[in-house]
Fold this protein.
Amino acid sequence: MKITVIGGGSTYTPELVNGFLERISTLPITELWLMDIDKERLDIVGGFAQRMVKAKGNPFKVVLSMNQREAIAGASYVTTQLRVGMMPARRGDEYLGLRHGLIGQETTGVGGMAKALRTIPVILGIAKDIREVAPNALLANFTNPAGLVTEALNRYAPDVPAVGVCNVGITTKMEIIEGLEKFTGTKIDSQHAALKTLGLNHLTWHYGFTVEGEEMWPYIFPAYVEELKKEEVPEWDIRTIETLGMIPNYYLQYFYYTDKKFVEQKKWPPSRAEAVMEIEKDLLREYADPALTEPPADLMKRGGAYYSTLATQLINSHFNDLGQIHVVNVRNNGAVKEWPADWVLELPAQVDGDGIHPLPADPLPASCFGLISQVKMYELLTVEAAVHGDRNAMYQALLTNPLGPSADKIQAVMDDMLETNKQWLPQFFV
């Protein structure tokens, strides 16, 4: 079996390789192709990956490539973890928002929009190659903004099986398990636990948790509220959480406490991108050490907890027809009957040999759906803007975005976004 990683020069890659090595007994990988357009990073990260595999007895071959089509050809699975423009572009996204008094972040607000505009055409190009040279492959996208990217695939490459993956769901699940284990003194098998969550990527609300089919939320939620009350500065105000009866995804801080988050951003530098650039510099230096054969401890500073766990579990469940439940981004298809069937949602889905099947769920309250529907309209307009280089759709997307500029400042933000990202947005300059 051939698995291809597009963006193989990422500092995350060793974690992914480690995940495949740990699961080699159930995933008969013969070739792992790492593809990247940055030769220096590919050589460093890929060389380290090859040493990791060699240290485990070479259970599969690690192939390095700068040719996307060659890397994809004949693959069973293609994972995408790319960043168009690399970290300097992410830094640009962050400071773009700051310049205009707005949230700048890689998945939300104007920063997330800029990243989506750069990324969507590239991802659709990958889907085209899959369609032509690996027609049986499943595309697992880890590239942010994952919801927007998956929505673009849903609209413009519906014939390519694809799923959007984010580590927030599994991280939340593991944190809840840790809390339950401390409370009960009993070990919990994560494979027999499931998080109930619903919304869009980085815009979800957690409302249930089962262990061996038993609903634990009546114990979990009150305990969570009590812990919040003990904190000097709780991350959520108590009234909001008690009113919702749910735990919001932490990215909802940008929507619920926009002023507070912007005050934090005004303290830059360093922004998150700048901090990560320093972390990556150190990681690449460590990866280049010819004696290194295990992922270094510093990799944890990069973020992305449980990334490899999620990636390998998902592929394993699909390949071995296990029917496991994973939180993913996928087309609704009637799972939430009250919401449009063609929307990409983030929710639990059963993963088996036939594909990714979203599980039925009741709709969220109106207070949540109002925000979801507004963000979804922004997503759909952004997809149109990215695919067609449509400046009018781009304008409307900014007008619709809850974290976007006021109407009289949209053109200034647009002009700045396009000029700053001109080299990656040729579709807007034809």
